[in-house]
Amino acid sequence: MRDNEQKNIDYGLDTNQNYQQITGSCHKLDSYNWLEDIPEGAKNKHIIEVRFKNTRKDFFRNVNELRLKTGDIVAVEASPGHDIGIVALTGELAYYQMMKNNGTKEAEELKKVYRKAKPADLEKWDEAVSLEKSTMLQSRKLAENLKLEMKIGDVEYQGDNTKAIFYYIADGRVDFRELIKILADKFKVRIEMRQIGARQETGRIGGTGPCGRELCCSSWMSNFISVTTNSARHQELSLNPQKLAGQCGKLKCCLNFELDSYLDAKKDFPDTSIPLETEEGTAYHQKTDIYKRLMWYSFDKEKAVKLSVISVDRVIEIQEMNKKGQKIQFLEDKTKLPDTFAEFKSNDEEESLDRFSNYSKSGRKRSKRKKKRRRPENEK
Questions:
Q1: What is the mean pLDDT of residues 56-62?
Q2: Is 102 exposed, middle or buried (0-12, 13-18, 19+ CB in 10 A)?
Q3: Of 123-137, 151-165, 358-372, the least confident
Q4: The listed CATH number (3.10.180.10, 3.65.10.10, 3.40.50.2000, 3.30.300.20) that belongs to domain 131-196
Q5: Strands 294-298 vs 308-311: parallel, antiparallel or unpaired
Q6: Which of 319, 325, 312 shows the shortest CA–CA distance to 265?
Q7: Quick check: helix, strand or coil at residue 295?
Q8: Which pTM does this prediction carry?
């Protein structure tokens, strides 16, 4: 008979995309164990991180001192019964992850790892996973019949098929007590309702973003930080809801990715609400290129016409002069201003716009020499 590890590979659980290619594959909740070569301490070697469906992870105690490695399928303690999960981390790094996520939670309070999953456990787990999609569709119809303002986005069965978690999204509070009774009577399992947000739902569904890559929420993000319009303002982005909103209808999570670098770059920038006084008139701020440290000003407060580009240092200098009651003669300081389009200029003839003017439609280069006209025979 083949060993348990080979059985784990055979039971790939192709009925659900989250359980495909269990061993040796990339997964949304995978963590690179950069402390793998460090000997395990006596205090931390029993801490195991186990991942379940989608973004659910938890920490357990390896009380039986099983020889576990990343990718092993284990049976763990649940309430009630037991659940089936996949080992994500072991050893020192799992302990640090627990301290980061759970804070002051003691290791003694963690639930236990019972054993490596047996073939009977895997068969029951496979059976439970195969019921998830049909259960979700039937529960949606039941919620619609009860006229509940909620949407059930996903269903997750526990490994021993005794409990089901229903993930739903709703704008406000929902009285689903009647729905729970109907679901428990229909599916003969313990029911748990868990509300999620629009971002979590999109992460479960998945998709492709405008950048052409898989959505961050469905590929690697598990914690969602609130995004506000201030993130777009600090990055000088146009406040266009159609461009700033993601597929979930909320502001894109990637607006926060580079926010800190923009804030650091703007620390010494002058106040843009202060106009610049010149002999030609009053100039008002229109836009800023933060990394190039350039600012655009116009003499028209409402419209961005006849823009003048000024360096940040020059704007600070002008504001200091205005505070002393002095007005500058010229708004721009072209002697110190960098060429903003230098990176787009090229002296190479191959980049010239008229580089194809000497070629015919057939692609052959036109000869500059004129062909001699042949005389008719009767003119000779």
A1: 87
A2: middle
A3: 358-372
A4: 3.30.300.20
A5: antiparallel
A6: 312
A7: strand
A8: 0.65
